[in-house]
Amino acid sequence: MNRQAPLVTIGVPVYNGEAMLGDMLSSLEAQTYERFKVVICDNASTDKTPEIAQAFCARDPRFTYHRNPENIGAAPNFNRVWDIDHSTPYYKWAAHDDIYAPTYLERCVAVLEREPEVVLAHSLTVLVDDTRQGHAASQMLLADTALDSFTDEAGRPAWTIGPPHPAEADDPVRRLDDLLNRMGGHFEIFAVMRTSALEQTQLHASYYGSDRSLLAQMVMLGPFRHVPERLYVNRFHQTVSRGLSRAELRKFTDTRRPSRWRIARMYWDILQAPRLAGVDRSTAIRCAGVTSRNFFTNYSRRAWLKLRRTLGQYREQNTRSGGTARAGDENAL
Predict the structure, then answer these.
(1) What is d(CA 19, CA 22) in angstroms, rounded to the nearest whole number?
(2) Helices 172-181 and 281-295, interaxial angle, to 10°?
(3) What is the C-alpha to C-alpha distance for residues 106 and 309, in angstroms, rounded to an integer?
(4) Strand (E) positions, 215-278?
(5) What's the rounded Cα separation, in Å, for the pair 257 and 204?
(6) DSSP3 helix / strand / coil % (the chain, rounded to 5)
(7) Are 174 and 67 in contact (CB under 8 A)?
């Protein structure tokens, strides 16, 4: 084993990950690029996560284990594992339920070493449906993002998520436009990132989807690069967070101070990304235009339809009650 100083820190935030954590850690242990260390931050799991993590630590000195005294939520735990150690030139987060091909780190680090202007390197993403029941296809908007579909070696439905080279332009406005309008799933949050760039961001905010605003901050600092190989596997399973209700998502994201205004917070943070990066005024104005168009394209019609449904329910309720609701009647609110 290579005993040279590590160049990559891999932060693993995990809560009750016993079903898949071992597979993910094994895929890291098998990397052909050996100059990395793994920091596992257990968010007060109640299953066998500690035993699984500690077994890796016992046999491989590159792995260390830390445990929070209580569950602080996913976003704070992502930031917590970063705070524990980000002392290497490169950093990546790794979800407990993903899988990496043996050459993933080797290929991504080579890009960052070769191109100092690049802030993030990732491979093509393979999405597999571990449920085998079509849930991934129904929830991931695959019609807009899938480059192909196939059956993997385990007999599961799988898709290659595209486009293959988003956010690689020299112009930060074009990169932001790619991030908001072309990038599928924002799996680049699990890329190998340049630590010096990540230090200039606000990290993860306490609302579901803050990975999108964090990537917006990164994309303003430099181009992304994508290795044209399928080296990263994202597993869609029964307990994936995308299946939670809104209330459950808030608690999942932050157990103490979750934001109730997720969309507003996300777009506000995206609008702040040019300022944090210190870009010139003209570029910042163009970025604001890209962000505003994306918001109105994606959410203005949705908000209007929701308002119409609410008004329709109010009128129907009024009709059933025999007229105008009385002042002070909570059903009129």
Answers:
(1) 8
(2) 10
(3) 52
(4) 224-236
(5) 13
(6) 45, 20, 35
(7) no
Show the CA angle centred on residue 121, arms to residues 271 and 220, nearest 5°: 20
| Beta bridge pairs of residue 201 | none
145 vs 148, 192, 196, 241, 290, CA distance in Å? 9, 22, 30, 20, 20
* CA 184 – CA 149 distance, rounded (Å): 15
Report pTM: 0.87
Q: Are residues 250 and 321 in the same domain?
A: no
Contacts 24+ apart (CB under 8 A), 275-280: 276/200, 276/201, 276/202, 276/217, 276/220, 277/172, 277/200, 277/217, 277/220, 277/221, 279/172, 279/220
Which amino acid, one-letter code, is at 41? C
Q: Are 125 and 24 in contact (CB under 8 A)?
A: no
Statement to judge: residues 110 and 217 lie in one domain: yes
With respect to residue 2, please indicate whether it lies within any of the assigned structural domains: no
Work out how many domains the chain is built from and give that number.
2
Question: What is the token pair recorded at 289?
Answer: 């235009």
Q: Are residues 308 and 201 in the same domain?
A: no
Q: What is the mean pLDDT of the chain?
A: 89
Tens-place pLDDT, residues 14-71: 999 999 999 999 999 999 999 999 999 999 999 999 999 999 999 999 999 999 999 9
Residues 290 and 272 in one domain: no
Q: What domain range is 100 assigned to?
A: 8-277
Q: What is the pLDDT of residues 118-150, one digit of tens each?
A: 999 999 999 998 877 766 666 666 667 888 999
Among residues 139, 90, 98, which one has the least CA distance to residue 115?
A: 90
> What is the phi-psi region of residue 2: left when phi exceeds 0, alpha when psi lies from -120 to 50, beta otherwise?
beta
Among candidates 150, 149, 136, 184, which has minimal Cα distance to 164?
184
The radius of gyration computed from the CA coordinates of the chain, to the nearest angstrom, equals 22
Contact 254, 73 (CB under 8 A): yes
Residue 290 lies in a domain: yes
SS3 for 127?
Answer: strand
Mean pLDDT of 187-192: 97
